[in-house]
Design brief:
33% of the residues lie in helices and 21% in strands. The protein is globular, with a radius of gyration of 18 Å. Helix 2 links the parallel strand 3 and strand 4. The protein has helices at residues 3-7, 61-79, 101-104, 119-137, 152-163, 209-223, 246-257; strands spanning 21-27, 34-40, 53-58, 85-90, 140-150, 170-174, 198-204, 231-237.
Length: 263
């Protein structure tokens, strides 16, 4: 074996061109824990030094980054969805010693688990730590930020949309869990200064009946209101389950967000 081959740092993602990009670890002061950040580059990102791109931040990056980052490439090919920089926010494991999604993605509430309630700190991590770092390292159009979350992550999407609408241009809540503090999502949201914001809430027809009912109730209520700081899109995926159809949720919501006809 040649010396250069012996000295080469072997990283598995080096051999997966659909996931070509970057990785870094960030120690969060707001949350008090580290996160592993995976970044997928658009095609020709390293050759084209001038273009700036939309950016999609994925909660639960441990599982959703390899699925949705590669799927975005096919959506670019087949659906002409603009290329984007995809950022996976990962814990580094599924075990409770590392993965604190239930805490990070939920707000304090009387009807919630007493061990939950870290949404404010996690949102501060995104706003003051992660977004500035990512957008200083990569060629990003900050006017086209998208945040995607699934299940409990979908609850955090709604929390972010209601508390700080301007932070993300687009948000996608895939099969969100409305518990705890469901009533908060029927109250008035914070005011936005932008007029181009979008919030897509997706539900699979084979999700649990109570989650389906919450989805239908929420979408119906907000489509009738005139105080929403974001355009609302309710999406029903026929035959889809709670977790296994994240690519379908991503596809339908992203095509809506980037549609010229979106209102």
């Amino acid at each position: 074996m040649a010396q250069s081959e012996q000295n080469e740092q072997i990283v598995p993602l080096n051999h997966l061109p659909a996931l070509k990009g970057d990785y870094f670890k960030i120690e969060s002061e707001n949350v008090g824990r580290p996160f592993h950040i995976y970044v997928r580059y658009p095609l020709d990102y390293e050759e084209d030094k001038k273009s700036k791109y939309p950016v999609v931040y994925l909660l639960d990056g441990d599982s959703l980054f390899p699925i949705l980052a590669t799927n975005h490439l096919f959506l670019h090919f087949d659906e002409k969805l603009p290329e984007a920089i995809i950022v996976g926010i990962s814990y580094g494991g599924f075990g409770p010693d590392k993965n604190h999604r239930s805490y990070d993605y939920s707000m304090p509430s009387a009807d919630g688990n007493p061990d939950w309630g870290g949404a404010s700190a996690f949102h501060a991590f995104l706003k003051s730590e992660l977004l500035p770092k990512v957008e200083s390292k990569y060629r990003i159009d900050p006017g086209k930020r998208v945040l995607f979350g699934q299940s409990r992550g979908g609850n955090f999407i709604l929390y972010s949309a209601f508390t700080d609408p301007d932070l993300f241009w687009g948000r996608i809540a895939s099969n969100p869990v409305f518990y705890p503090a469901k009533e908060r999502f029927f109250e008035a949201a914070a005011k936005a200064t932008r007029t181009d914001l979008g919030l897509a809430v997706v539900s699979g027809s084979r999700d649990r009946a109570d989650r389906r009912a919450d989805h239908e109730e929420w979408v119906a209520a907000w489509l009738q209101r005139d105080d929403a700081p974001w355009a609302v899109k309710g999406i029903n995926l026929e035959g889809a389950t709670h977790a296994a159809n994240s690519t379908d949720a991503y596809r339908s919501a992203m095509l809506w967000l980037f549609s010229d006809q979106r209102k």
